[in-house]
Amino acid sequence: MKPLFRLFGAAMLIASSALQIQPAAAQKVLTIATDATFPPFESIDSSGKVVGYDVELMQAVCDAAKLKCNIINAAWEGMIPGLIAGKYDALISQLTVTEARRKILAFSDIYDRPVFRFVAKQGATYEFTPEGLKGKTIAVQTGTPMDAFVTKTFPQADIKRYTSGSAPYLELASGRAELHMSYEAQITHAFLKSEDGKGFGLLGPRYTGKDAPEFGEGVAIAINKRNVELVKSVNEGLAKLRENGALAALNAKYFGTN
Amino acid sequence: MNWTIIADSLPLYAQGARLTVLLTVSALAIGFGLSLGLALLRNSPNPWIRLPIASYTLVFRGTPLLVQLFLIYFGLAQFGLLRQSILWPWLSSPLFCVLLTFVLNTTAYTTEIFAGGLRHLPPGEIEAARAYGMSPWTIARRILIPAMLSRSLTLYGNETIMMMHATSLASTVTLLEITGVARNITLTSYILFEPYVTAAAIYLCLTFILVGAFHMAERRWVDARG
Amino acid sequence: MLAAYAMTVLGAGLVTLQLAAGALALAVLFGLAGALCKLSSSVVLRTLAGIYTSVVRGIPDLVLMLLVFYSLPTLVNEVLTAAGISYYFELDPFIAGTVTLALIFGAYMTETFRGALVAIPKGQVEAARAYGLGPMRTFTGILLPQMARLALPGFTNNWLVLLKATALASLIGLQDVMLTAKGAAEATGQPFTFYLLAGGFYLALTLSSVLFLAWLGRRLDLGTRELSR
């Protein structure tokens, strides 16, 4: 019995010393959530990893700011509430900075200014007025700027809302939805270049934040309002990437532009 | 806590509850009718009748309802031929796909429940009916179906509750039943506690009503037989 | 490309299995505790167990999962903040999924185990007591082995429903078979292919479970006999 007891005591000692060292040496790993249904910005690749523009950008920001980050895939519906509740430390998911969101979230500096477009069958013509889209089916991701915009601007359209950013494309391909509204870069690079996107094209006005408040100021990393420190370090990281050309290189890698 | 948002959304919850009840009642009603027939055929001595039904119930009881729903809603749209067929106006409606999935699912379970109720029927009862000169149709109507139903009332009661709860999956294909309403409120109001608690409370009430109804039915039709 | 996605979907089968196994182990514990509470002489324990089983079985699995994953941490943290404690309570999708499924199937197991315990003749417990066996020995030596045999059909059924219910964890973001299938479906534009693959995975699991548990049932029934009628 005695040796066993001594062994147990030794194990306890090691465990407790390990526990004591841990908090001092290890930096807190930040949990950063993304809704990985929005290629090429964030998606799950064929090996099950979270990949994309935002994911690479976030990792680079974390490295530049010397933060330890764990970027995870999260369900869209729980992301913003999860950030407010402290479930996640930050969100990177092409989140548009809008007045409504500023009230409840803190944002980093803006890192991109997207253009919002409609996509539909090539050759189809629509008049982008409340009358012209009356009864047309428009697919959008719920709770996005596009959702807010079409809900307000085209109240007589038949708006179908999905919790995933990719599902509207399946609906477009199947003909369940006539139109889908999203980020121009996403439509172009994730859909129009794919097999399913053949015969589809961009149409309608090129909307930006200047056209409607719903489209916001641009996209940024969202952070909990109480975490002023993190906003500062993320902005420092972003600034470094701007200076050393890493951001431009990332843009070139994904979109062939800067 | 922010209950004013919930108070403001009560009309939405009421609409959601109506859709939940509508989905539950229609899936169960159609499933009930189909299962009566399938259960009788399920015990058929002819393997060409028995085995297809057995494989159908096996597949639908052996896979998650969520998979079945996504296969029917998103999966079928993969086939261009189907998209051009006359079925497509139906299949393109989320309500129709959800109902189709629920009916296929509940029919599989209910068929097995009813067929199980029939299996323990003493053969003498049917022999006696034959001896009286009853036709197969009369035997089914007067002996088999009543015996089947009263023997499976408890299990069928569970199945109705399961079905009512299963309708919550309709929220994954854009339908705004109770769960869909709750998920939508979290997306637009950014609160995580109140919407789901409210949804849970509504489901609890609906479940208790169903349980109460089946207790009454059991007292009326099962206990009375002694 | 398709093959790589297919391998990822099947590889996520490990996550599904871990979730199911973890939830089952916990559910058996909850079920045993629940059954003993329901059969206890204490009114408080009986009432608590009654509330547990009827509330858990009165809420859809999906809603309960959303409650545990989203609402529970929110509530706990609000209470902690109000109490001035700077601890942060958090559940990841795997833990939230395991706990939810354990809660749900713990409630079903409670009924299964209670039914099995009731079916064991009272005289056996009295005989054990007369032989001087303590309550613990009586439970582990006399009741438990018989309960296992009597509860097997109900247990089998609960396990099959549990296996299928794991797919719901994909809706709170767990990278299981279902979520990887959804990702592959949306990335390749071939939803039918990948949901069919996922369906095949679950069907293979449920079928092999049925066969294994039927074999186990025959083993456990060895040495018992039907009363001659």
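Chain B has a mean pLDDT of 93.
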